[in-house]
């Protein structure tokens, strides 16, 4: 039950944040928070970081994302490692949230923009952070297991 509540909580936080950005920040506007962090409002029609933007139908992207998510869910169900299961659940939460966003809008709302001088990272959202955290958890868990052997 705790895992399900975490899953729902993460999705709600992501979708609410996207709703607020959509309503309060004009498209392609950048609001500085620090010297390296800005809030923006960008519509991502592609996959990660806008790759293939406009080249692939949103419905194909949704279908592919669902296939990958189902596979990750399968991995989670068959895992016996608690950390791995949690990491996979967090990845699934991010994936489902972005799938919901794309299903509703035809694109994913990205709003966190990090940069320093001429270096920058493409805008992203909380769901992307969830996916990244889940992957990092799994990698660290794997490396810890390898180191113990």
Structural class: alpha+beta
Strand order of the largest sheet: 1-2-3-4
**What's the overall average pLDDT, rounded?**
94
- The number of domains is 1
Rg for CA atoms: 16 Å
Shape category: globular
The H/E string reads: HEEHHEEH
Low-confidence segments: none
Biggest sheet overview: 4 strands, antiparallel
Number of strands: 4
Strand content: 15-25%
Tally of helical segments: 4
Spatial gap, N to C terminus: 33 Å
Q: Fraction of residues in helices?
A: 55-70%
Could you walk me through the main structural features you see in this protein, from its secondary elements to its overall organization?
The structure is a single chain. This protein has one domain (2-18, 59-148). The chain is built from four helices and four strands; from the N terminus they run H-E-E-H-H-E-E-H. The protein has helices spanning 2-24, 58-78, 82-105, 126-148, and strands at residues 30-32, 37-44, 108-116, 119-124. The protein has a four-stranded antiparallel β-sheet with strand order 1-2-3-4. The longest helix has 24 residues, at 82-105. The termini are far apart.
Produce a short descriptive summary.
With 149 residues, the protein is an alpha+beta fold. The protein contains 4 helices and 4 strands, in the order αββααββα.
Question: What distinguishing features does this structure have?
Answer:
4-stranded antiparallel sheet; 149 residues; 17% strand; globular; 4 helices; alpha+beta
Which secondary structure elements does this structure contain, and how are they paired or packed?
Elements: H1 2-24, E1 30-32, E2 37-44, H2 58-78, H3 82-105, E3 108-116, E4 119-124, H4 126-148
Antiparallel strand pairs: 1-2, 2-3, 3-4
